[in-house]
């Protein structure tokens, strides 16, 4: 095969987004005869999208040398931007700043419209957003948008609008910010931006949605990102972040098996090389273990998430509460609330604080946390925050012996969680509703709410909640006559755990576990552990 044939095949593979083929063919052509700058840029992009970051950087440096050497300063500045873009995403701010400075120097004081000036201004605008100087960031990105429009450069327009949208969100202009991000995503979906930029825009927009708790938009764009990644099997960057977003959404939607698969795949993708988003994936893994009552596994996952940069709260404090270590839970959540934190995590900390402070006899503290959460919900006006705030308002009203107020708030919370397709949270609200109805003397409605919550917890495999529900309702909430504890044991048997492993997870003795297993087999009329495993899967208990 001649160099020209390899070059043609490489260009065709690039257009098809077959990145491995494009990289192989273009690299082969380059070995025969050095590529022109246009084709070098294709080769550098293919290397980046395959995760070959060092190779991509070396190729962009080569393209920069060639363009600068022949006096094509604008093209050299464009290469400097792409080098800075890659380094910024790899967490190397000093080298990023160096390449941006080099690009600006190469453009010098020459006047006239030049898209490269806009490209080099965008990273500075990002820094202004992070520093809290949003008006300056908005002004700089507006100039970049106008440059991109005059120069016919859709990549620059989309990139600048995306940063501008995030700046508007930080200023509290949620509607304006989301409209800008929606416009960016329409451009991406129409395939009007380069593949090298599309993945970054997807992740940035989804992060923006999560920052303002716009769950419905985050879901929609995560589905689109998933489809984009799946259409390019060779793609390496962005796939891990996509899986993290998917895991978080599946966790809330009650698709816990899918959430676990996505989170573990995300950890695998984000560990080669290590990426900070792996901590978020491990936090999802920890939450799933906690919700299923697998305390030892949850603790290990929270520890690893913390090591990867994702603080373990509020999940670890909730785990301590479930373990009966109430003072440890209270200390942990109060410390977390008192420290500077990610604004995207603050509502979850507040909701956990309400639960923990009520459990530890501090209704006044719980009321303060609920009030702060209500203020956030009113300011951002997103269904997710309104659902959290209404649930906390109902809980504090119950603690204050105001059952009528509690019922109103809890009904509102239940409707919101149902609208968000969040079955676990909806079931938790049902438990509180049942308690409020019982306090108001409505035993029939209380029983119905208890039963609905128990059915939801059983479908999800939320063993600790089933156990708590049995205590609150005064009835076993099992299947086939099993008690809640027996369901917990059955789930772990079905997961392949030995009696010793089950004992460690549930903090029981091996003798007690053996008795539970014997009772399960007798009640269900089953001959073996394998038959019990099949029963658990058939009934959706696993």
TrEMBL record:
Keywords attached to this entry: DNA-binding, Transcription, Transcription regulation
Designated name of the protein: LuxR C-terminal-related transcriptional regulator
CDD domains, A to Z: LuxR_C_like (cd06170)
Domain HTH luxR-type: 475-540
Annotated Pfam families: GerE (PF00196)
Gene3D superfamilies assigned to the protein according to its UniProt record, in alphabetical order: Tetratricopeptide repeat domain, Winged helix-like DNA-binding domain superfamily/Winged helix DNA-binding domain
């Amino acid at each position: 095969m001649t160099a020209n044939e390899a070059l043609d095949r490489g260009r065709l593979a690039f257009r098809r987004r077959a990145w491995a083929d494009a990289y192989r063919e273009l690299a082969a052509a380059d070995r025969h005869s050095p590529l022109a700058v246009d084709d070098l840029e294709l080769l550098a992009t293919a290397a980046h999208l395959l995760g070959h970051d060092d190779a991509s950087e070396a190729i962009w440096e080569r393209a920069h040398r060639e363009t600068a050497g022949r006096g094509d300063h604008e093209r050299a500045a464009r290469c400097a931007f792409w080098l800075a873009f890659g380094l910024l995403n790899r967490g190397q701010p000093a080298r990023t700043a160096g390449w941006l400075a080099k690009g600006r120097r190469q453009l010098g004081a020459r006047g006239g419209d030049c898209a490269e000036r806009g490209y080099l201004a965008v990273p500075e605008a990002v820094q202004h957003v992070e520093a809290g100087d949003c008006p300056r960031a908005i002004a700089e990105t507006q100039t970049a948008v106008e440059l991109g429009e005059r120069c016919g450069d859709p990549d620059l327009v989309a990139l600048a609008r995306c940063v501008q949208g995030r700046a508007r969100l930080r200023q509290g202009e949620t509607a304006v910010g989301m409209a800008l991000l929606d416009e960016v995503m329409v451009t991406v979906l129409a395939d009007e931006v380069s593949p090298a930029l599309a993945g970054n825009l997807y992740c940035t927009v989804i992060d923006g949605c999560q920052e303002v708790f716009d769950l419905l938009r985050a879901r929609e764009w995560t589905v689109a990102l998933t489809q984009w990644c799946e259409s390019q099997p060779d793609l390496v960057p962005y796939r891990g972040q996509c899986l993290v977003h998917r895991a978080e959404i599946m966790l809330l939607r009650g698709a816990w098996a899918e959430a676990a698969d996505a989170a573990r795949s995300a950890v695998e993708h984000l560990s080669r090389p290590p990426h900070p988003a792996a901590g978020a994936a491990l936090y999802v893994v920890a939450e799933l273990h906690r919700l299923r009552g697998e305390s030892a596994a949850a603790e290990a996952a929270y520890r690893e998430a913390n090591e990867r940069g994702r603080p373990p709260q509020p999940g670890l404090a909730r785990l301590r509460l479930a373990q009966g270590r109430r003072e440890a839970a209270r200390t942990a959540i109060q410390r977390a609330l008192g420290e500077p934190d990610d604004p995207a995590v603050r509502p979850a900390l507040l909701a956990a604080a309400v639960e923990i402070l009520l459990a530890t006899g501090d209704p006044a503290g719980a009321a303060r946390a609920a009030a702060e959460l209500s203020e956030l919900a009113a300011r951002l006006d997103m269904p997710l925050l309104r659902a959290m705030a209404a649930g906390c308002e109902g809980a504090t009203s119950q603690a204050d012996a105001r059952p009528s107020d509690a019922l109103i708030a809890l009904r509102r919370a239940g409707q919101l969680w149902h609208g968000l397709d969040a079955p676990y949270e909806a079931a938790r609200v049902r438990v509180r509703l049942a308690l409020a109805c019982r306090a108001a003397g409505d035993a029939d409605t209380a029983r119905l709410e208890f039963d609905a919550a128990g059915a939801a917890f059983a479908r999800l495999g939320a063993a600790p909640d089933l156990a708590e529900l049995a205590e609150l309702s005064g009835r076993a909430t099992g299947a086939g006559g099993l008690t809640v504890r027996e369901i917990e044991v059955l789930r772990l048997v079905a997961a392949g755990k030995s009696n010793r492993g089950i004992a460690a997870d549930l903090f029981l003795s091996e003798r007690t576990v053996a008795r539970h297993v014997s009772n399960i087999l007798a009640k269900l009329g089953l001959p073996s552990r394998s038959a019990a495993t099949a029963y658990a899967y058939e009934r959706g208990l696993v």
